[in-house]
């Protein structure tokens, strides 16, 4: 009685044919890849991009850096005035990041489709987040400088708008990914939308929110140097002034100091995010 069953299993095993590609999934996959490559080739041709010239430019760039930007004037970045600008940049990034995160939390709550307090708040929240994300921080800086004048107030305002869009999008995505079971349970008790958010949503996303807030500060610090270049103050203002005066050795020293500060911020934010992840 067992031999026919074994024979049937062997026949079934021989009938199964393995294939690397499955139709029509393989057609969609390779067709999409072919279209992307064709568009890339057309773009290079349309823009007249000379890849050979671009490769040669890298060698010339090294020669320019060694001739004009070496050795960097490190004494300049150790000056008391420049060191105070580093502190200004840190303060500007902290204030802009903190204010942006605080404003992003209610916007993220409104723009999360699953827990928005009212259906009319959803498009308003989405519009606020998209509006802040759609405009680059340099454009925000130019706008605020034209209204508030040069200085850290314009820089902090620009970084705040940048962080609202950056953190608001990430916060909203985290809220929409929560488990709706606790939310429905809290709603069943007759809780209002604010109570639902505080007691059903926040406990699920507080760790993720903390990590996003730290990452937002990290990004804000990098953007603070660019904001300063366009009139927001800090290290970016020193960089702009020396670039305009063709003080190449000082420019090289400022760039090195910016890279060093970004590395410190990267290690600090990475340590804080790791500590948050360990606390889960």
Your description of this structure?
This protein is mainly α and about 280 residues long. It has 2 domains: about 20-70; about 75-280, MetI-like (MetI-like fold). The chain contains 12 helices and no strands. Helix 5 runs antiparallel to helix 6 and helix 7 packs across helix 10. The longest helix is centred in the C-terminal third of the chain and has 40 residues, at about 195-230. The chain is globular and about 70 Å long.
Assign the CATH architecture of the largest domain: Orthogonal Bundle
What's the alpha carbon Rg, rounded to whole Å? 27 Å
CATH class of the largest domain: Mainly Alpha
Helix/strand class = mainly alpha
- What is the terminal separation in angstroms? 57 Å
Short description:
With 280 residues, the chain is mainly α. It folds into 2 domains: 48 residues; 205 residues, MetI-like (MetI-like fold, Orthogonal Bundle), CATH 1.10.3720.
Secondary structure: elements and pairs:
Elements: H1 2-15, H2 25-46, H3 51-68, H4 74-77, H5 80-111, H6 121-134, H7 137-148, H8 152-176, H9 180-188, H10 193-232, H11 235-244, H12 248-278
Helix pairs in contact: 5-6, 5-8, 5-10, 6-8, 7-8, 7-10, 8-10, 9-10, 10-11, 10-12, 11-12
Defining traits:
12 helices
